């Protein structure tokens, strides 16, 4: 499972941080950071979701008020 985070869209509500340790606060920028991610292009960050943390990652995506987070299954299909 993979998670994708559009940092430009993030408005810094930090609800994702409350749901999953895969996100942390960047108070200087007023945005969240996706831990251990790689930037792909245009401030989009991608990371693999560790085994056992899939549910938390999905919750983090679901609570984002601006839909800056997407979760994909192993076949590349968006599930959140």
From TrEMBL:
The keyword Zinc does not apply. Keywords: Electron transport, Iron, Iron-sulfur, Metal-binding, Transport. InterPro entries: Fe-S_cluster_ET. SUPFAM superfamilies: 4Fe-4S ferredoxins. One of its GO terms (molecular function) is metal ion binding. It comes from the Archaea. Coiled coil: none annotated. PANTHER family: FERREDOXIN (PTHR36923:SF3). This is Ferredoxin. It comes from Halonotius roseus.
């Amino acid at each position: 499972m993979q998670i994708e985070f559009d940092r430009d869209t993030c408005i810094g509500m930090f609800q994702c941080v409350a749901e999953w340790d895969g996100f942390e606060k960047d108070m200087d920028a007023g945005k969240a950071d996706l831990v251990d991610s790689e930037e792909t292009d245009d401030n989009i960050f991608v990371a693999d979701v560790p085994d056992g943390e899939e549910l938390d990652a999905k919750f983090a995506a679901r609570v984002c008020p601006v839909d800056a987070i997407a979760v994909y299954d192993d076949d590349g299909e968006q599930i959140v």
